[in-house]
């Protein structure tokens, strides 16, 4: 077990370097363009979208907490926890792929339905992961941590580094947090997935793009969740 934990610590070092690494030029240019576009949108529209995403995320959090089995994994070692989370990720990734292909093949209307469906799949996976690693999702602070893991997975360079520091020093930082900055939360998430999801609406290629995009988005979330919880369990 000690040997496995040493291996995980080495992986955490590499992951932390990846987190603080500057994103590609294409991604930075996309973010700049999306920021400019956001500045042209009326404030009332931003408020409506923010409130919608906030309500959608909170409803998903509540639903996921109810449907997640509260099994006790506190006595299980990290190797078994990681193994189980990887198994869960495989299941949720398959679900996301099927959902992405289905909504992508359905054109614009079903493509728009992909947003809340995929959000629900992602949140459900995070609740499963938290439970497997032994954290009580009935606690508000753990649901807040889940939202920060989500934000860490899907945000720009600056926000990703800031969120990582919050997660890295969670025991101290959580005392300062009352709620998420929902405006930032929804803009970072939308900016992260908007470009690829736009291609999902194109007839003929939408199914392939949807399946591929959802596969990679779940992979990204899985890696982030595993390492965020590993960091909490093993310390910095």
Note down, in words, how this protein is organized.
By secondary structure, the protein is mostly helical. It has one domain. 81% of the residues lie in helices and 0% in strands. The chain contains 10 helices and no strands. It is globular.
Write the layout of secondary structure elements.
Layout: H1 2-20, H2 25-40, H3 43-67, H4 78-105, H5 107-132, H6 140-153, H7 157-168, H8 170-173, H9 182-200, H10 206-234
Helix pairs in contact: 1-10, 2-9, 3-5, 3-9, 4-5, 4-10, 5-6, 5-10, 6-7, 6-10, 9-10
Brief summary:
This protein has 236 residues and is mainly α. It has ten helices and no strands. Mean pLDDT is 78; it is low at 104-113.
Helix and strand pattern: HHHHHHHHHH
Tell me the overall shape.
globular
Question: What structural category arises from helix and sheet content?
Answer: mainly alpha
The counted number of beta strands is 0
How many domains in all? 1
- Extract low-pLDDT stretches: 104-113
Rg over CA atoms, rounded to whole Å, is 18 Å
- Count of discrete alpha- or pi-helical segments spanning 4 or more residues: 10
Look at the structure and give the mean pLDDT.
Answer: 78
End-to-end span in angstroms?
18 Å
Helix percent reads: over 70%
Question: Which band does the percent of strand residues land in?
Answer: under 5%
Largest sheet: none
Oligomer: single chain
